[in-house]
Amino acid sequence: MGHQLLPVSLPLLNHPSSKWYHRETVALHLFLATYNPGKVAEYLSLLGTLPLDLVTPSQVGITTAPEETGATFEENALLKAKYYLERSGLLTLADDSGLEVDALNGGPGVHSARYGGPGISDSDRVRKLMKALEGVPWERRTARFHCVVALAWPDAAWETFHGTREGYIALEPKGANGFGYDPVFFLPELGMTMAELPPEVKNRLSHRAEAARKAMLRLQKETAVTQLVGNRSPKTSFRG
Ligand code: ITT
Question: How far apart are CA 230 and CA 222, in angstroms?
Answer without folding.
Answer: 12
